[in-house]
Every structure is written in structure tokens, then in C-alpha cells.
């Protein structure tokens, strides 16, 4: 279970999150929506421990563990996964090599036996097929020369192989056409179960047509100003974010 | 105690065939009139050679375990010549000359080979500009002559292994290679320099000369893998006739001092040189590559990519000179050097040096020095990979792009294993940290 309480975070001198609280129980899917600049992506960055983001107040615990005290890689080993809005290109390191290193470490941490390379290859190819990426993408440099959509699907591929218990998808839907959107949605829906949770950070309601969230939250000026069920997203779609100005004020 | 400059060279060269005497005498005169470079010598500004200014005894023939050697050198499937401390070791060598190829030691050269050696030896390397090549010629007692017949295509790479292994006193070894690639021939050659028990000091002076005649193609690989106190100062000097292609790959890692000069003279129209290299010093090692592309004729091309990963308190030098002569119109010369510093103490001195006297040329050069990209490190860590392993993956990725360009599959596999080991040894610290 993820529990965020009164989270304040800044980049340099700029306060971005100003008292965000959120609880995500096992098996739940939460959508976080909000206008540009509301702090949606910052939440994902802070959860992943990205350099440059400073938490000035508040707490984050995951399954009782103090997340803010953990290194980035330790968070990943606890089962937290962030699908990056802008995945990083790493020329010279093959996708396969990267995925194998990552899967090996996470399995070791979970006390599972390492996968032999034949089994790993088989799983990687299957995940490729599900992510609608050609198998040749496994041999290419990590995200090297991938289109925007291919990078997003490569994040999905990683999520499927790493099997995290908590996935934060940071605007994974933006820039995707409807087919790619459905591929991502199907990937998430296939992984949904009683123990696995998802936080979908999104600007648009569109993704939520394919992944039905249990809760929708509206983030504005660094705080959650409204929470509801899936119908809240439809309300936002219809009325935009302008009405929030009154709530924030 | 006599220093390097004053030591008599007679002992080392007594065994040389008579027909080498004239070349030797001339070089000896030059050597004795010269002095060792200091930090004030422009070409040696960042490389201190005082470690070799000491007494060295000649290298001795020492027997070496074949299995130990085989584990350390690539298996390319072609002829292999092994020299131990400068002495040819027939037991470790296999000279099944392929069709179109002849390999001979200077000492064994027949009359026609001796004539060819005499005609070409020293014709490529400018001993007036390269002091250590002068020393090499002055101390010459043996060498390898490799000839590819005109029109011949030799598939399996020939390998020459220059091995140094400990003696009781510090010793010096002189290595010389002359390659004559005939018109429209094609061949590959791997030079591997390694050392065993290299805590004892040694100094190898390895000079290779390449004469590529019209339309010849030569794929050349020079692996400088000596470790510890096995020091090396050497050079690769190539002369390219019309439409010749010289592909030369370099790897430098592992010892306190390495300095390699790569000088390529485009002496015929349409010649092409493709020179790539990696240098990976760590600890307190120092590696210096000086390259020079002499574009003397029109319509020649050169493409040069060097990458360095410099770790710990190690240092490296890359100096890439491109000299385009007035008549060398329509030249295309590209030079790229990228460096990755993986510690705050690591040092690199990189300098492009362009002299362009023709007006219709394309010339591009770039040099960068960077530390590991923090965002890339973060991305890998966000997938559970530790900082140390992320550093290994990223460093490996940085050099891997050049290894992927190596044409010989056997050599590519050898290099991948070698580099994986090189980088994971750095990452050995990771396991300790993880356990803690």
C-alpha cells in the first residue's frame, strides 16, 4: 500500500507540490489528472527519487517502508516502477542487455532464481509482441532512435517484464495514437490483479476509456483538490480545468 | 648508471642480418645526436617518459605456457607468430601461410624478400620526426615481414603476438613489423601486445610500417594490452598508394605508460583511411594516442573516431592532427574524439590539430569530454540497477559502438569479453556494497 501524506517538493527554489496526500491500496487503479504545471509529473519524479527534486515536508511509505529513505534502485526493488514521460536514450547498451540486468536484479531481490537466457529471451519476445514492438527492438540501443510512441511502448515492455507491484505511468498516453493507446491499456489491464496497483498520471480522459480507474483525483497547484470515481474524469472532459480556479483560491 | 640515451645499442643489434647494417648505422647516428623528449617538447607535453630513462638489459628468450598465452589472445584462425621478449618462439607459432601470403622474419628472409625489406623498411616512418622509431631502427635485430601478393585475398587474419614476460632485471624489447600489401590485395592483420608477470619493468618499442600499393585493402588491429610496469612507446606508420584502403582499429588499456603514434600518409589519389580507437586507462595508468593524417594527394578520405573512458586517477592524451597539403583538393577528413571521465581525478588532454592548405576540402572535427549522464544513470537505477552497475553499463555502451564496427567476428567476440571483464572488474565493488 502506498501512503503519501502532506508531500511538499521543490525544484531549485520553486515549490511544486504543496501538501499532496494520496493512499493507493493493493489492486487499485488511481488516475491523477490536472492542468499543465499542476505538479503531476513531479509526483512521479519524487517517487522515483530523481536528482534535483527536493522533498521539503511530508512522508511517503510503501508497504510500511519509508520510501524517501531509499535509493532509487532500492525503490525499484521494492516493486515501484515509473514509466517515464520522456524515456532516456542510451546508445551502445542494448535493450536486451538492459532488461536482463534489470530483471536479474529484481528477481534476486525477490528471492527468485535467475532466468536462464533462453527463458528470458522467450519472455522478452512475448512482451515485445504484447507491446506491439518488433523483436528487433530488443537488439537496438535502449530507446536509441525510437519514435515517441515506440519509447512509450518500450516503457510498457519493461513494466511487463519487471512485474512491479506499483506502477506509475507518467503521461504514457500523451502523443500516442488510438491504436498505441489501446496497446498500453491492454498491457495495464492484463497486469491488473488484487495485489498490483497503478497510478495513471494523465492530462486527458481518453486513456480512462480503456482503463477504468477506481479513483480519479484532480491535482491543482501542487495539491489534490478533488477526488471521485471514474465519473469525475468525464466531468473534467466536459468542463475542462477552469472551474478549478475557484477551488484552489 | 647509463641512461637510455647513452646505452650502447650494439648488444641488441649484433644478431641482425648484414644487409640491415646500413639502415641501422644511420639510425644509430641520429639516435646518439638526439635527446629524450621532456614536457617542454610539444609532442610530449602531457606524457612523461622519465620512467624509461634508466638501464635496461636486452630481452631473453623465455619459454611460455601455450595454454596461458592462448587464453589471453584472440583466436583468429590464420597464421600466428609469437615473440617472447623480442625473440621468435616457433613452438607457440603456426605459420601455415595461406595462398597469396608470405610471412618471414628478417633473419630468415630469402634474397628477394631481403631486397623488398631493404627497399621499404624505413620508407614509411619519418625517423627525423619520430625519435622512438629512430631508436627502433637503431636497435633493430629482427622483425617480421609480411607480404600480400598482388590480387590476393587472404581471409583469415594473420596474428602477431608480442609478449613480454618477467626477467630478473628491467629489460627493453624492440619490435618491428613491415607489411607490403600488393596491388588490389586484401588481408587482415592483428597485432596483440600483452605481458605476463608485468610487475617487473620492461620497455617495448614497437614500430609497424605498412605499405599499401594501388587498390590494396588492409584491415589492421592493434591491441595494446600490456599491464603493470610493461611500458610501451610505439607507432603505426602507413603509406597509401592510389585507391588503397587502410582500416586500423586500436585498443589501449592496462599499463603505466603507453604512447602510440599513428601516422597515415595518403600518397595516391582516392586513398582511404578509417581509424578507430579506444583507450581505457584506470588506476594511475597513462595512455597517449597521437594520430596524424597526411593528406598529400587529391580526392582522399580519412575518418577517425577515438573514444576514451578514463577512470580513477588515470590520464589520457588524444592528439589528432590533420594535415591537408595544397594539392590535396577534394579531401574529406573527419575526426571525432569523445571522452568519458568516470572519476573526479581522471584526466584527459584532447586536441585537434588542423593544418589545411587546400581550399576545396571537407574537414570536420570534434572533441568532447563528459562525465556520466546523470539522467541516464537515474533511468537505469529506476529499474533496480545499482549506481555502480549503471556506470559499467553506460561505460560499456560508450565503447561498444566502436567494437560493433570491428569486421572480424572472432575478434569482435574477443573484444566484447575483454571489455566486459574490464568493466565488470571496476564494478566488482558493487557486490561488496550491495551485501553491506
Structure description:
The complex is a heterodimer of chains A (249) and B (436). With 249 residues, chain A is of the alpha/beta class. In chain A, 35% of the residues lie in helices and 29% in strands. Chain A has eight helices and twelve strands. Chain A has a six-stranded mixed β-sheet, with helices on both faces. In chain A, a hairpin with a 2-residue loop joins strand 4 (53-62) and strand 5 (65-66). In chain A, helix 4 (117-130) packs across helix 5 and helix 5 (148-162) runs parallel beside helix 6 (178-191). The two termini of chain A are 32 Å apart. Chain B is α/β, with parallel strands linked by helices. Helix content of chain B is 21%, strand content 38%. Chain B has nine helices and 20 strands. In chain B, the strands form two sheets. In chain B, strands 1, 4, 5, 7, 9, 11, 13, 15, 17 and 19 form a ten-stranded mixed β-sheet that branches. Chain B has a ten-stranded mixed β-sheet with strand order 3-2-6-8-10-12-14-16-18-20, covered by helices on one side. In chain B, a hairpin with a 2-residue loop joins strand 2 (80-84) and strand 3 (87-88). In chain B, helix 6 (374-381) packs across helix 7 and helix 7 packs antiparallel against helix 8 (409-426). The model of chain B is unreliable at 426-436 (pLDDT under 50). Chain A binds chain B through residues 48-51, 71-73, 75-77, 81-82, 84, 87-88, 90-93, 97-98, 101-102, 105-106, 109, 141, 158, 162, and chain B through 373-376, 378-387, 389, 393-394, 396-401.
